[in-house]
Amino acid sequence: MPTTLPYIDDQIASPELKAQFDEVSKIMGNVPPLLRILANVPPFIPAFMDFAGPVLMGENLTIDLKCLALLRVSEINDCNYCRGYYAPLAQQVGLVGERREAITKPSVALNLFNPKETAVLELAEEMTRNVQASPATVAKAREALGAGGTLEAMLTIGLFNLINRVARTSGLPLES
């Protein structure tokens, strides 16, 4: 499916936008396709990076738990872009085999996951399907993750709901 918005590659990027792409490449190793869509409004790139960076790099929730959250959200939202783009991270953090398969199911077999992982999965499920998690789910998350970890999980889930919606609506390809 072609993108519904222009995909800004290096050949058509302005010198200022190329400079932004260079900065992103220094941080991330490449310019993700999502940012090439966001480049239709160049100020969105630093604004997005300023928000997403601290959420994803925060120190209250481990990267494996953030990966679990973003992949579950992407499964619920049927976002092929995010499932594919973050598959290498899932491998890197050990989310493979039966556990990786479990998060692709409509109902996750929570017995495969530890209490922290279960708390993240339950937050992701409720926040994605119902917009907000129940007080009981938030309390369970706070017990397992602490207040800071719970907030980072909530922000990661919210961020990836946003990314999924932009990626799907814009027809974002996995590869440029």
Number of strands: 0
Parts with pLDDT < 50 across at least 5 consecutive residues? none
Mean pLDDT: 94
**Mind describing the biggest β-sheet?**
none
Structural class label: mainly alpha
Shape: globular
Q: DSSP helix count?
A: 9
- Fraction in beta strands: under 5%
Order of helices and strands: HHHHHHHHH
How would you portray this structure in words?
The structure is a single chain. The two termini are 12 Å apart. The longest helix is centred in the C-terminal third of the chain and has 35 residues. The model has no long low-confidence stretch (mean pLDDT 94). The chain has 176 residues and is mainly alpha-helical. Helix 8 crosses helix 9.
